[in-house]
Amino acid sequence: MDFSRVLAFLRKERGLSQRGAAEALGISQALLSHYETGAREPGLPFLVRACDFYGVSADYLLGRTLVRDGAALNADELYDAQEDKQNRLGRSSVSSLLGRKMVVNAICVLFDLAGRSGSTALAAELTNYFGGAVYKMFRHFCTQSGVSGLFPAPDCAYGPASDADMAESEARLLAVLHQKNNPPNLPGISNDTLTEEYPQLVRSLLTITHQAGSRAAKKFL
């Protein structure tokens, strides 16, 4: 149960014992233990107290999001890393900065092509696919940093499970691309059109494509 996992994670993150957290939340240690193991489910009053105590939204506490304030994403309001000039992203090493810019630029081209195709499904599967890759890498970092309890899938399974999810996203994306009825109307793709449409992004896309293609080709030699 996501609620019990998140509840225990928040307490451990604060460095609190079950006794200390239970006292702050106005319940017995035994009852808190039941909540954290999933043996019992709390009522709404406890959920509200826990949200206030840990400073998180109900959606976060229930495992419905990793965004602690529970705010919904809005494309117009979402921060754009491409426009970052003076924030922490500018303090990266040269190799990290280069890699980040290349990947972000290349992905922007893919999403723009998907958006121009008129297919919402295409953009959705791109999001799912890249989301799986981000999840895996972020979880690797969290594990190395000693963060535990943040994710629902167990450590022994999240890699293969994420790979399977990405493979399913790729299969659904291919199905959208090759559907006979109402296929996506992708714009023409050639070196000339890419250079004309994305003059500042195309070098990143082609560089990443070349590097990845070379690595893939070597596996068959």
Structure description:
With 221 residues, the protein is mainly alpha-helical. It has 2 domains: 2-61, Orthogonal Bundle (434 Repressor (Amino-terminal Domain)), CATH 1.10.260; 81-218, no CATH class. The chain contains 10 helices and no strands. The protein is elongated.
Strand content: under 5%
> Can you count the beta strands?
0
Q: What's the mean pLDDT score?
A: 88
Helix percent band: 55-70%
Number of domains: 2
Structural class computed from helices and strand pairing = mainly alpha
Low-pLDDT stretches are none
Radius of gyration: 22 Å
Shape: elongated
Task: Supply the number of helical segments.
Answer: 10
Largest sheet: none
Distance from first to last alpha carbon: 47 Å
Question: How would you summarize this macromolecular structure in one to three sentences?
Answer:
The protein has helices at 2-14, 18-25, 29-37, 44-54, 58-61, 94-116, 120-144, 158-177, 191-197, 202-218.
